[in-house]
Structures are given as C-alpha cells and as structure tokens.
Structure to design on (172 residues):
C-alpha cells in the first residue's frame, strides 16, 4: 500500500502572475444563513431579516448581507489561495455590482495580479489576487483585491502532515 498525499494548497512558489483559479465549490444561500449572519454581526438593517419590510423596498425581498457575501467568496477561495497563508494583509477595491438574494447560488474565481518577496520575512512571500463572485445567472455580485502573506514550501508548519505520519506509522 502506498500513501497518496492529499491536496495541501498552494505555497508562494506555486503562484504565477496571470494564473486564474476557478474555485471548486458553489454555495446556495438560505434564509437562515442570511438571518443568522446578520444578527450575529449585529447588523440592524431590517432589509436582511424582515420579510415584510424587505417587500416594501425597491428589491421586493430580503437582500443578503454584503459582508456575508465577502466572507463566503473569500472562504470559497481558501482551497486554492490561502490554505498556507500566514496572514491576510487586506481587502481593497471591494465592489458589489449586483444584489445577492436568498436562494442565489454563488460561485467564484481568482486571478493572481502580483507576487513578491516579503521585505521583512524570508519565510513568506506576498501575493495579491483579484477575486470575483458570481451568481447562478452569471452576474458578478462581488469583486475585490486581496493581499496575503503565504508560506514558502520549505518554511510551512508541518501541522497535520507530521501528525498523520506518526499516527499512520503506529497503526500500520
């Protein structure tokens, strides 16, 4: 039997300017997702959780909290972009060109815009991407730039890999 290494995400060396990653998972947003996130973050605007109120607005139905959309699309990108990130440095140029409604399914992709060595830390590099979230109709609902520090392969914490090797050895 041979042990096959699973996907562990990209490291600094794996990123190239111009690369585009289509993130693999979509997510349909429920009423519960929208209400809980809105209330959890203490957003008191009733357009997100009061059906009767929202029906009286220009949209005619509840809007999904825009920070939920940002969090969801960022989460969708982790597998491809930030599985090995030391720290997020920021989100900029966030745009919300189309509304998101309960029941919409959101997909996303990212393009690598910049990559450079860190000036202060030799164990990481700095990568900037532009990420797009879009709905089931192909409408872009969010886009933004995100910059993060990502580990270089030789400096990444061993984490689960070292633990797996120990457990596997003991149970083989």
């Amino acid at each position: 039997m041979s042990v096959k290494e699973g996907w562990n995400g990209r490291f600094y060396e794996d990123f190239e300017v111009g690369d585009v990653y289509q993130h693999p998972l979509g997510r349909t947003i429920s009423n519960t997702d929208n209400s809980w996130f809105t209330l959890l973050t203490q957003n008191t605007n009733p357009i997100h959780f009061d059906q009767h109120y929202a029906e009286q607005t220009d949209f005619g139905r509840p809007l999904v909290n825009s920070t939920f959309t940002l969090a969801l699309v960022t989460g969708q990108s982790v597998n491809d972009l930030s599985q090995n990130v030391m720290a997020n440095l920021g989100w900029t140029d966030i745009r919300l060109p189309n509304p998101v409604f309960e029941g919409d399914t959101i997909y996303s992709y990212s393009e690598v815009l910049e990559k450079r060595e860190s000036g202060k830390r030799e164990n990481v590099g700095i990568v900037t991407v532009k990420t797009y979230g879009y709905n089931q109709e192909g409408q872009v609902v969010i886009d933004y730039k995100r910059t993060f520090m990502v580990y270089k392969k030789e400096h990444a914490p061993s984490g689960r890999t070292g633990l797996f090797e120990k457990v596997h050895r003991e149970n083989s």
In short: Residues 159-171 form the longest helix (13 residues).
